[in-house]
Amino acid sequence: MNKITLLIHCKDRSNIIASVTNFIAKEGGNIVYIDQHVDREQNIFFMRLESEFTIGNFTTDSFKESFKNTLADEFEMKWRIYSSENKPKMALFISKYDHCLYDLLGRYNSGELNLEIPFIISNHLDLKPIADSFKIPFHHIPVTKDTKNEAENKQLELLEQYNIDFIVLARYMQIVSGKLINKYPNKIINIHHSFLPAFVGAKPYHSAYKRGVKIIGATSHYVTEELDAGPIIEQDVAHVSHTHSIKDLIAKGRDLEKIVLANAVKLHTDRKVMVYNNKTVIFS
Amino acid sequence: MNKITLLIHCKDRSNIIASVTNFIAKEGGNIVYIDQHVDREQNIFFMRLESEFTIGNFTTDSFKESFKNTLADEFEMKWRIYSSENKPKMALFISKYDHCLYDLLGRYNSGELNLEIPFIISNHLDLKPIADSFKIPFHHIPVTKDTKNEAENKQLELLEQYNIDFIVLARYMQIVSGKLINKYPNKIINIHHSFLPAFVGAKPYHSAYKRGVKIIGATSHYVTEELDAGPIIEQDVAHVSHTHSIKDLIAKGRDLEKIVLANAVKLHTDRKVMVYNNKTVIFS
Amino acid sequence: MNKITLLIHCKDRSNIIASVTNFIAKEGGNIVYIDQHVDREQNIFFMRLESEFTIGNFTTDSFKESFKNTLADEFEMKWRIYSSENKPKMALFISKYDHCLYDLLGRYNSGELNLEIPFIISNHLDLKPIADSFKIPFHHIPVTKDTKNEAENKQLELLEQYNIDFIVLARYMQIVSGKLINKYPNKIINIHHSFLPAFVGAKPYHSAYKRGVKIIGATSHYVTEELDAGPIIEQDVAHVSHTHSIKDLIAKGRDLEKIVLANAVKLHTDRKVMVYNNKTVIFS
Amino acid sequence: MNKITLLIHCKDRSNIIASVTNFIAKEGGNIVYIDQHVDREQNIFFMRLESEFTIGNFTTDSFKESFKNTLADEFEMKWRIYSSENKPKMALFISKYDHCLYDLLGRYNSGELNLEIPFIISNHLDLKPIADSFKIPFHHIPVTKDTKNEAENKQLELLEQYNIDFIVLARYMQIVSGKLINKYPNKIINIHHSFLPAFVGAKPYHSAYKRGVKIIGATSHYVTEELDAGPIIEQDVAHVSHTHSIKDLIAKGRDLEKIVLANAVKLHTDRKVMVYNNKTVIFS
């Protein structure tokens, strides 16, 4: 039994849904999940579809070839097909904060995440013992102003060597350069510790405290070249009051950050996120 | 341009989605929305589909006829088709509490609700001035132990006379009899002032206070013969603390009740709710 | 039985709490509620205290005089004393949106709000029928670029004539001038339709839609001269998704706006809000 | 500088607050935090107070003696005094689920929790490696029907040997006997995977799925002899839909459970919880 997930977007027009479902039927597939969305402002059609194929000689490659030459061409679709056989490979970038790391590795360990973590990269050694206790290779790549370029080359080398599919910045605290971003477009997930677009940049909890907000938040988004301005995948908030010091906000925020980041990682690895126009369509 | 909403459920098997989308295409329809769900425990397939028909000689009736004789028969579907031309007619049953009434009528007045309210029924006269100010006919049908049956007959008469599609009990405070329920199966929406299944029955805020819960809730559900045990449409909760008296819980609860009930009414009138096995599938 | 609410803030130092509670005891009062807060960054002490006095010759005025000449002087306190006998008088400023109006008047009517509404001011006539149905005097004061100053004078005249204590802008949609703000410092409550500081200014739902946020919010704050930058009283949020159009966000937002505004009004009239440093301390 | 936390409850009557604050002042203390609550139904007064003492010859013991013989006696108070010098000692009881364990140990490691964990007890060996990686002694005490009594004696021995202050059942999955409960009244914290009082007992996620609820929850409470009926410390909920399988509910619930349990542990160790009448007063 082969199972594929198909993600499509294209200009909206009549009969796309019927055409696609027909195509799948002809190829011998049984659709087990279908969801679609039309952005009426932009006139763009989005679809996510899961199909099972029992026919012996089905291969993802031949399906791709067939799809590409017929429907994809006809409707000028942008599309991706994922086989359920391949677990996405995630690289984890960390620094000194451990809460997202513990949370992700705890979930990974218990089988909650459908992915592989070939290695962890950090610019500091502080969290190496945690990586060790989970038996995940840890690469210490220090980053200074002078070595930033060199460090990034080392990172890229590792990413390529292990065929990494996507990167998670689990409170990495470093600005990632355009070189990396362009190599992994909509494939670098960051967790920002505010409800974006409020409090872009450094020290958002300090800014939240100063403004006297009654809610704080966390936002997981894909990294783009503009700081904290990439497509938002997931957000959540918590209520706070005047009794909370900055330290309290940071502590409360940690719980938001780890849950929001974990949810974003799950949505991404389940192929439920489509990006366009700097926004996301989440088929959940 | 005709627009229909089609709701289907049947035993799950291969190729349902492709068959339905094909059928719609052959009938000249363009699917603008499709959503589906499979209950893997019960092996039941659910689908909600919106389709537009531009062909001049399309009628909902002929479509129904055709659908019934082909697909519906083949897959042994249970199905409903709604034309967007028909606004559902809602009867509002109230008693002495006004918060849900103000909220629903305010929304109705501002055009937020896609429905008609031919009349309001109450067992008390207290809220008549509100009905009057919104210019909605108000029928006072008192209910006592002795007159319960007679009162219900009057209610049924009005419901039939105005071709009512569904009933909303906006804190009606009376138990509705099986006669009414059987006449309007999954068409009587109640708001219960607790997060069901906690605190079934009378005085849930008192029970919540006594138990010392830290959250209170409200639940909108379809009425079935078992008290507060019907299919849940919508729920929401609010955090409370030891500082809240029973009176405070009631006040906080009112805000939950009116929002939860309004949301349930909208889901119902948008044909987004399917009921099976005493549960709901909400295509939102 | 007289009951007063005392609000104090001053530089933090030792023994303030004991001194105040002692003073109340000597005056014959029984403290029924006490809450305090210290802002450790600014070193400011805040206190809210409710006390009952049964002694026959107690008057709020003599208590004030005594408090002023002793404790208030010694600790250089800023303070306010409210007698529970006086209901605050609220002026309601509205424009064309009716959801906050219906919500506030519904609560007012059912006795949920501890205040009086001597009149409603609007720059449009659209909502006059609602004011009429609740039997609240409605003053139509149109505002154009040319008549803005004159309109404000008329408003001020009414506010003074009726001894208005505070103003609520229930989606008034006009920028209030410094003249009014200075006359009612921390006494003009606005509802802004975003989770501030995100989306300051006009059309926040459009901006939220464009940015692709996964939560929208509403913020109630005191009006200061800087637009949407005054002390925040209350905030709440709701989850949204790519399926929500701008119109959907606006509809969902209405429910947030009315609840958040009503909560802010209640906190204000219950004398639970203290303002300093452009932030609020909420003793709830 | 000595700092104490004082928790009081007694029958409500006049001048308690003034009497206590006076007493503290006379003893040379400076009150830095005061909060109080009156249960008007039961007529019980509750107070939590933090005070700093700079006088050289202050001791918690002499303060206790003095307080006991004067105020406590006069007002017939039930009271507890904690010195900030003593970190509470927590015993962790676990079984096979690791999410609460990882979460608590991660927080413990990063210094977020103000407590000590002398040891972990489990009836299974599965999670020993996690305890080892955090370098916390792990005691394997298997529990079977036949050995239950013997196992409990071993537990009690360890608890006494290490002067354990309170016990946390982090998904321990065993019913704790009356012997243990009576020895640690309101000192055994459990996490139940439902919003109590809904779904008491085993398999609450299965029951929630069956009932078709739209919210699931988690509840942390003190253990009493009646199953899942003890005083509730903290609750939280998450929205779910028909798309969630039981497995999904369990996964979503894990995130609730770990946050709710961690919050309850923090409230308990910060001495912010008072219990009476099978309910809690939470001074947060």
UniProtKB/TrEMBL annotation, chains A, B, C, D:
GO molecular function annotation: formyltetrahydrofolate deformylase activity
Superkingdom assignment: Bacteria
Pathways involved: Purine metabolism; IMP biosynthesis via de novo pathway; formate from 10-formyl-5,6,7,8-tetrahydrofolate: step 1/1
NCBIfam families, per the entry: PRK06027.1, PurU
Active-site annotation: D228
Coiled-coil boundaries: none
UniProt name for this protein: Formyltetrahydrofolate deformylase
Keywords (A to Z) from UniProt: Hydrolase, One-carbon metabolism, Purine biosynthesis
EC number: 3.5.1.10
Protein family (similarity comment): Belongs to the PurU family.
Domain (ACT): residue spans on this chain: 5-86
Root EC class: hydrolase
Catalysed reactions, semicolon-separated: (6R)-10-formyltetrahydrofolate + H2O = (6S)-5,6,7,8-tetrahydrofolate + formate + H(+)
